[in-house]
Write a structure and sequence with these properties.
InterPro entries: AGP_Transferase, Aminoglycoside_PTrfase, Kinase-like_dom_sf. It comes from Calocera viscosa (strain TUFC12733). This is Aminoglycoside phosphotransferase domain-containing protein. The chain has 428 residues and is of the alpha+beta class. Among the domains are: 108 residues, Phosphorylase Kinase, domain 1 (2-Layer Sandwich); 121 residues. Helices cover 39% and strands 17% of the residues. α7 crosses α8 and α8 crosses α12. It is globular, with a radius of gyration of 22 Å. It starts with 10 loop residues before the first strand and ends with a helix.
Length: 428
C-alpha cells in the first residue's frame, strides 16, 4: 500500500504537486477530487455530489478497501464557491484550537487548501458526520427528556466557548509550530458579492482591543465596499429602476454613515465588554449535530461551520438559538414550550457559570449592544436590518438609561427573526 499524505494532522495542500495538475481546470471536478483524495489517503475512491450550500459545494468521498488505519470509509470534500482563503485558514485553525482546549466536539480536518491548488477554489477534506442529525430537523423528533438534554448540551457549548478567553477581538490563526495568535476578524459576506466575483469574506487587517473600534472598522469597511461597487447596490436595491444609481448609492451610504455615528454612543464599553471570548458566528440548529438514538438522544455529537468564529465580548454569546424558537423550518413553537426550553437553557448556563460573567451578560443593559453586533456583522446588502436597528435605537435611546439591571435581557425574538431573515437574504 502506498504511503498516505495524511498521517494524523491536517495536510496543507497549497504547495503540493498532484498528477491532477495535468487536468484542465475547467474539466469535471470529480476526477480531480479523486486524484487528491487518493494521494491523501492511499486508497481508491468514488466521488458523488452530496450537497449544495450558499457558499460551498460538497462532495462525498467513498474510500475503498484496503485503506490505512483510523481513516473512515467516507469523507467530505467541501469546495468554496469563491476565493475565501482567510475563511478556510481560520476555520481550520479555530477547529484545532477548540479541539485542543475544550471538550466541544468538532469535525476532524484531514486536509485543506487556501489557494485553489488542483480544484481551482479553496477546499477542505473534513469528517463526514454519520452518527447524528442536524439539531434543526432532529429536535422535534426527540421526546421531552431528549429535548431537555439537547438544550442543556447547547448551554454547555456556550459555557465552554465563554471560557476560551482572549485579549483582543479577532479570528484565530495558528503558527506552523502549533502556537496560536489573533489576526484580524474574518466574517462572511453576501452571496451577491460571490456572484459578482467579489469577496465573500472581509478580513480586517488587525485584531482590536475594544468593541467600539472593531464595530466602527466593520461598518467603515462596508461603506468602502459599497462605494467601490455601486453596480451591486443598484442591482440589490433598485430592481424596478425607480431611482437613479446615484440616489440608491446615497441612500445606502447614508444608512451606513448613520450607523457609524451611532456606534460610540450605543455600544456598551464597561467592564464586561472587556471580557473577550471565542464565539461561533452561527451557533444554531443548522450547525449542530445531535444523536437521536437512546440512550444518547439529545447529545451533541459535532459542531460544524467554524468559518465565522471570532473573539467577541462575552455578552455577545447570550442569545436564543433557533431550535427553541421555531418548529421545523417556519412554524413557531408554542409560547409555553419556548419559555420552558429557554428556562432550561438559562438555568443550565447559570449553574455552569462559575465566575458570574454570563450571569451579568443576562442584564438588559447589554441588549442594545447585542442587537448592534448582530446588525453590524451582517453583510452589506442587509440595509433594511440596519435601518430597523437605527429606528429602534432612536426610540430606545432615552428609555435604555432607566432599564432595570436584573431583567433577563436575552436577544429579543424580533431581533432573532431579523437576523435570521438577513442571513437568508445572503443565500439567495
Amino acid at each position: 500500500m502506498a504511503t498516505p499524505l495524511y498521517r494524523g494532522s491536517p495536510v496543507n495542500i497549497d504547495e503540493l504537486d498532484f498528477p491532477a495538475t495535468s487536468l484542465r481546470h475547467d474539466s469535471a471536478v470529480e476526477p480531480r477530487i479523486a486524484v487528491v483524495a487518493k494521494s491523501l489517503f492511499a486508497s481508491e475512491c468514488n466521488i458523488n455530489h452530496f450537497a449544495n450550500g450558499s457558499r460551498n459545494e460538497v462532495y462525498l468521498v467513498k474510500l475503498a478497501q484496503p485503506r490505512p488505519p483510523l481513516i473512515p470509509p467516507t469523507i467530505l470534500c467541501r469546495i468554496s464557491k469563491a476565493a475565501s482563503s482567510p475563511s478556510i485558514q481560520t476555520e481550520v485553525d479555530t477547529m484545532l484550537y477548540v479541539s485542543e482546549r475544550s471538550r466541544i466536539p468538532v469535525p476532524r480536518v484531514f486536509a485543506y487548501c487556501t489557494n485553489g491548488n488542483v480544484l481551482s477554489q479553496a477546499y477542505l477534506f473534513i469528517e463526514h458526520i454519520t452518527t447524528g442529525k442536524r439539531m434543526r430537523e432532529a429536535f422535534e423528533t426527540l421526546d421531552e427528556e431528549g429535548k431537555a438534554r439537547a438544550t442543556r448540551e447547547y448551554a454547555g457549548v456556550v459555557y465552554k466557548l465563554s471560557q476560551l478567553r482572549c485579549t483582543h477581538i479577532g479570528s484565530l490563526r495558528r503558527y506552523p509550530e502549533g502556537t496560536y495568535y489573533l489576526g484580524g476578524p474574518s466574517l462572511a459576506r453576501s452571496k451577491r458579492a460571490v456572484s459578482a466575483d467579489q469577496r465573500i469574506h472581509a478580513t480586517l487587517e488587525r485584531p482590536f482591543s475594544a468593541v467600539v473600534p472593531w464595530l466602527l472598522a466593520m461598518e467603515e469597511d462596508q461603506l468602502h465596499f459599497v462605494r467601490e461597487h455601486p453596480e451591486l447596490i443598484n442591482e440589490r436595491f433598485n430592481a424596478y429602476g425607480s431611482k437613479s444609481a446615484t440616489e440608491v448609492m446615497n441612500d445606502a451610504s447614508l444608512v451606513l454613515r448613520r450607523l457609524i455615528g451611532a456606534i460610540p454612543d450605543a455600544c456598551d464599553t464597561g467592564a464586561l465588554s472587556k471580557v473577550l471570548c471565542l464565539w461561533h458566528y452561527d451557533l444554531n440548529g443548522g450547525s449542530i449535530f445531535i444523536s437521536t438514538r437512546a440512550p444518547d438522544a439529545g447529545r451533541i455529537v459535532s459542531v460544524i461551520d467554524w468559518d465565522g468564529a471570532i473573539v467577541t465580548p462575552i455578552w455577545r454569546v447570550v442569545r436564543w438559538p433557533d431550535f427553541i424558537s421555531v418548529r421545523g423550518v417556519r412554524d413557531c413553537l408554542p409560547e409555553a414550550d419556548k419559555k420552558r426550553f429557554q428556562n432550561i437553557l438559562r438555568n443550565e448556563i447559570m449553574r455552569l457559570d462559575s465566575d458570574g460573567f454570563l450571569r451579568k451578560a443576562f442584564q438588559e443593559r447589554y441588549e442594545l449592544s447585542r442587537e448592534l453586533v448582530e446588525v453590524v456583522t451582517q453583510p452589506w446588502n442587509c440595509m433594511h436590518e440596519r435601518q430597523q436597528w437605527l429606528d429602534a435605537w432612536e426610540k430606545k435611546r432615552e428609555a435604555c438609561k432607566a432599564v432595570k439591571p436584573e431583567s433577563s435581557g436575552w436577544m429579543s425574538d424580533k431581533l432573532v427573526r431579523i437576523f435570521r431573515r438577513g442571513r437568508r437574504h445572503t443565500r439567495r
